[in-house]
Amino acid sequence: MKYGFGVDLGGTTVKMSLFSTDGTLVEKWFIDTDASNGGKNIPGDIARSILADMKKYPFDPDDYIGIGIGVPGQIHKDGSASAVNLGWDHTPLLGELTKITGLRATGGNDANMAALGEYWLGGGKGCSSLVLVTLGTGVGGGIIIDGKCLDGAHGAGGELGHIPIEPDETRQCACGSRGCLEQYASATGNVRIATEMLSATDEPSTLRSVAKLDAKSCWDAAIAGDPLAMRIADVFSDYLGRGLAAVANIVDPEIILLGGGVSHAGDALLTRVRKSFEKYAFPACKKTPIGLATLSNDAGIYGAFRALLV
Amino acid sequence: MKYGFGVDLGGTTVKMSLFSTDGTLVEKWFIDTDASNGGKNIPGDIARSILADMKKYPFDPDDYIGIGIGVPGQIHKDGSASAVNLGWDHTPLLGELTKITGLRATGGNDANMAALGEYWLGGGKGCSSLVLVTLGTGVGGGIIIDGKCLDGAHGAGGELGHIPIEPDETRQCACGSRGCLEQYASATGNVRIATEMLSATDEPSTLRSVAKLDAKSCWDAAIAGDPLAMRIADVFSDYLGRGLAAVANIVDPEIILLGGGVSHAGDALLTRVRKSFEKYAFPACKKTPIGLATLSNDAGIYGAFRALLV
After folding, report:
1. Nearest 5°: phi and psi at A269?
2. What pLDDT does B122 receive?
3. 3-state SS string over A145-198?
């Protein structure tokens, strides 16, 4: 048995983990993300935390296969990384990790690492290809083909949140375009659809009296049978199903998995999305299974470690 | 030096070829596609034509690496093939070719084979990934990632013509959905856009007096500076650029190539499509080169032979 580290670097917290090569999560811990000085302390902080962890176990350096890391951005071929939210622009990363720990380092975009985790031991276990769509504040995505991440020639592989989906949109997406999937099929988009549909009518709805109108309250009301909330859920799901059909007509994965906060709506979401997907998908892939991601917030560390085994 | 056969099976003609492994097209010939009896004579016809060709050269059987074939449908894992237009449904193909010729046989969807050909020795030579979009009667596509065809889990990889692009469409696409890219960005779609825009106004246009309103006459008029024809070209290109942006935001290829009849419009098309693409593409891939396929109708045989080298 050998061991290795899986790291999921976030904007406020770094999730750290020790895995054994049979897929057992041995240990999990967190350190703060030091965003000061353009994030230049982060690689050293991660490496020293790993070094400290290595001292707790009676293993030789040879017992470790390395460090896998997912970043909220892109890891370049030279081992440096860029991540707007951390202030990183070609910041040395993999080389720094190796210099301090003596271990091999590899990794990639955090959404792609999460997809690799779900492929390995999550909702896509046993499949050779999958698409993971993460429905959070934004819409993220990762694509696995034949067991490998589709990173793309410019690190934009799997940027599913930015598929153009609504030609008539006038508002701008964070990326600068108009009508991106993320403008509708994210938690933020869900609230916007709800706000617009609530203000377009006087129809009574339990949503008018919730303390906070968010994606969860929208789906809770839809599940409880509130008619307007159910129509909001339909509109949200139609956008998402259309986006997933675009993905399926292009990469045709074995399975599509939904993760992130909005996916907690579960069957109420899946049923609607499958209906919309089937409407827009190419005949050969109309029956592609759409399910839920199962590793939740741990998908990133599972995938980051798994990247060491590719 | 070794040799092999590249075959591109079409609905009326089978294009046959002999290649050497350095990429030289040694010989090219055609046989008729015998569509009678559910197309069951086709595999034998192809195999016997290859056998006859082998007798013309003083090579040993060991000098041949095999037969690569592209079909207008799908080749299954068991070597059988399905192709609606030929009446094929899991029709034995690769096994039949091998049984009669003694040569190894492999292959795939014809659009994917064409993409592999363009990747090998065409417009994508030197790239590791590309998307080929064929603008003909319909819109076909093929995707190459790390030198391999993205076939998809259900043979629907690269079905770019059926990306949902226009949510407001009421007319049905041949695939059964509504608002597919092919309904706008094909030669057929081009004529429809032109017909609608011509009938919506009394504005003079040279297009009103052409003998036959087809994609070529539309682009000829746009290139000659006819204002209405130029706007038709803009609308066509906006749809296509939006579809290509969807593809780029998902698979992020190194280059996008346009082929098929409409691509003969050349720079008038490329300039417009690049502008539209840049509007909808994710920042990291806004500058993805969009160029022309260069192997024309031979892309399929190049790719089919190249599939033997994967």
Report:
1. -80, -50
2. 97
3. ECCEECCCCCCCCCCHHHCECCCCCCCECCCCCECECHHHHCHHHHHHHHHHHH
Residue B85 reports pLDDT greater than 90: no
**Residue A205 confidence (pLDDT) above 90:** yes
B179 contacts on A by Cβ (under 8 Å):
280
Q: What is the pLDDT of residues A133-158, one digit of tens each?
A: 999 999 999 999 999 999 999 988 99
pTM, full prediction: 0.93
pLDDT tens readout for residues A17-44: 999 999 999 999 999 999 899 999 999 9
Over chain B, what HEC string results? CCEEEEEEECCCEEEEEEEECCCCEEEEEEEECCCCHHHCCHHHHHHHHHHHHHCCCCCCHHHEEEEEEEECCEECCCCEEEEHHHCEEEEECHHHHHHHHCCCEEEEEHHHHHHHHHHHHCCCCCCCEEEEEEECCCEEEEEEECCEECCCCCCCCCCHHHCECCCCCCCECCCCCECECHHHHCHHHHHHHHHHHHHCCCCCCHHHHCCCCCHHHHHHHHHCCCHHHHHHHHHHHHHHHHHHHHHHHHHCCCEEEEECHHHHHCHHHHHHHHHHHHHHCCHHHCCCCEEECCCHHHHHHHHHHHHHHC
Cβ contact (<8 Å) for B150 and A251? yes
Q: pLDDT per residue over B130-164, tens digit each?
A: 999 999 999 999 999 999 999 999 988 999 999 99
How many angstroms separate the CA of residue A217 from the nearest CA in chain B?
A: 28
* Measured CA distances, A21 to A80, A109, B12, B76 (Å): 26, 22, 55, 34
CB contact under 8 A, B246 and A250: yes
Domains, chain B: 3-116 (3.30.420.40), 126-294 (3.30.420.40)
What pLDDT score does B242 carry?
97
pLDDT digits (tens, 9 = 90+) for A76-93: 999 999 998 899 999 999
For B34-58, the pLDDT digits (tens) are: 989 999 999 999 999 999 999 999 9
**Residue A310's pLDDT band (cuts 50, 70, 90):** confident
* Beta-carbon separation of A167 and B166 below 8 A: yes
Chain B residue nearest residue A241, CA to CA: B164
Contact B25, B64 (CB under 8 A): no
CB pairs under 8 A between A and B: 144
From chain B, the residues in CB contact with A273 under 8 A are none
pLDDT for B204: 97
Query: Which residues in chain A have their CB less than 8 angstroms from residue B162's CB?
Result: 249, 282
Write out chain A residues lying below 8 Å of B126, CB-based.
none
CB–CB contact B154 A250 (8 Å): no
Q: Which residues of B touch A251 (CB under 8 A)?
A: 143, 150, 152, 157, 250-251
Q: Residue A155 has what pLDDT?
A: 87
Asked if B89 and B81 touch (Cβ cutoff 8 Å), the reply is: no
Closest Cβ–Cβ partner in B175, B242, B247 for A250: B247
Percent of chain B with pLDDT over 90: 94
